Amino acid sequence: MEPLNSSRRGRFIVSAAAALLLAGGIATTALGLHAQPPPSQATATLPATAPTTSAAEVPAPTPSPAATASSAPAAVPVAPDAALPASVPLRVEVPSIGVDAALLPLGKQANGEIQTPPGEPGAPGGWYQGSPTPGQTGSAIILGHVNAINTPIGLFYRLHELTQGQDITLIRADHIAAVFTVDKVDVYHKAAFPTVDVYKNADRPEVRLITCGGYDPATREYLDNTVVYAHLTSSHPA
After folding, report:
1. Strand, helix or coil at 3?
2. Which of 19, 147, 176, 225 is most solvent-facing, going by the fewest CB within 10 Å?
3. For strand 26-29 and strand 125-128, is the pairing parallel, antiparallel, or unpaired?
4. Would the pTM count as exceeding 0.85?
5. What is the C-alpha to C-alpha distance for residues 210 and 139, in angstroms, rounded to an integer?
6. Distance CA 96, CA 237 (A)
7. Domains of the chain
8. How many Cβ atoms sit within 10 Å of the Cβ of residue 142?
9. What single DSSP character describes residue 147?
10. Which run of H or of E encompasses 198?
11. pLDDT of 51-108, one tens digit each?
12. Burial, 25: exposed, middle or buried (Cβ in 10 Å; 0-12, 13-18, 19+)?
């Protein structure tokens, strides 16, 4: 695998008006590693047996139906303008696309670029800690690779498959699961990335899930970004 360099990265130039984000700064994020191509590009689907979490993680045993019914936390509906207190996200769960993974806090590198999550297969995603925590008023930013080192399947390989109405759950350090419902999924060419629209703070609790897309086999680069927009709809004990 060739090393990443800034010329291969999607550039995110963040407006000074985007409070709590990279005010007035320039950040780039490599969410598509320079590696082997995906098996099929925009319409590829993840095989049922492909790993989406670290091999070191051991799945919990499946509870009995009775235990599930008695112990499942009840969702607490959230008013559109409601918000949760700050708490760092620890995991992201998107059952409809097979995502269940840890999250790492991401900052900025010395050159102003946003740090990226590790690129190994089964690696976690990242929460940009300059953004609100999931459930706070504003736009929490969650990043994940579309592929991984030596494999075309990364954490957010199937992100483009999400549709309006599906759920995203962020497990927070305060043991609250914040549930977000997808509003839309957009794909932008990196050269025309709508920075302010994506990164600006919303006036309600929202989340953005971001990865790369649009693989170009001629250059072995990802030319697009996939962005999922979702808003907080409920919460429950995790």
Report:
1. coil
2. 19
3. unpaired
4. no
5. 12
6. 21
7. 6-38+74-237 (2.40.260.10)
8. 27
9. S
10. helix 195-199
11. 333 322 323 333 444 434 445 567 777 775 689 999 999 999 999 999 999 999 999 8
12. middle
